[in-house]
Every structure is written in structure tokens, then in C-alpha cells.
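ESCALATION

Customer reports they have been waiting on this structure for their group meeting. Please prioritize. Original submission:
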Amino acid sequence: MRFAAILLAALVALTACSKPKPPVGKWEGGYESGGDLVVARVEILPSGQIKVMAPDITNAVGSREQIDELRARLSADLVNGWSEVTPRSFDFDGKTFRKPGGVAPQMIWDKDSNHLTLELYIGARPAMPVPLRPVDDFHDNPFASG
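Update from on-call: job pushed to the front of the queue and completed.
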């Protein structure tokens, strides 16, 4: 009986120390605020490797029609460039993704809602949080809901 208790304790300790597995799936979204436009896709593969792409335009100004044209251009760039994205590794602690050995958060996963926030760094500015929603398949327009 004592051996079983020790074995169980050892298994619990090993499980507690094991590295969390990132959630497998696809996320996408669009962001527009203060002249910044971003479209983004993230795919986490069963291997744990991650494909991520987020074309952006900063200081976008113009009429609503011009902004909508820029949004469409970004969406097309995302769709057309996605097949060229190379999967890469990130460290994952169960919530936050970081570059291997890095400190700055790159993505944050909310387990309860299965939403992902991409932390986009443009120049010397603070991270721009780009909210992404889970999707079964990617869409031509990541700004659209659904």
C-alpha cells in the first residue's frame, strides 16, 4: 500500500512538472483603431508548431471607403501569403506564448473562451493586443464575424 502511495505521488509530481500542450486549432481576426489596421491568422498544429501571420498598416488615414479598401488589401495579402508561412516554435506555459527563451508575450490564450490575443509589436511602441476568435476554417475577410 505504501509503495502505491509513493508511486501515485511520483506520477502526480511528474504530471505537475510536465510542459502544457498548446491548444490545437485556428484563430483569426481583424483590428482597427487609431489609424492602425491589422489582420491576423494563427494556426496551432498538433505538433505544437505555430503558423502566424499579421500584416498591418499604421497611420492609415482617409475616408471610410479608403479605409475599407486598405482593410480589403490587408485581407487579400493574408489570404495570398498564408501558404508561405513557416511553422515555428514558441514556449507555452498554459496561457502565454513566448519566443523560445523570450520574455515578451507573443500570444495569450483564454482557455475558458478559447480566444487568443496576438500581442503585435510594431517599432518601439507597446504591444498592440489583437483579439482573435477560434474558427473551423479561415475566411477571406478576417474582419468579418463568424
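Sent to customer with the following note: The helical segments are 2-17, 64-81.
Escalation resolved.
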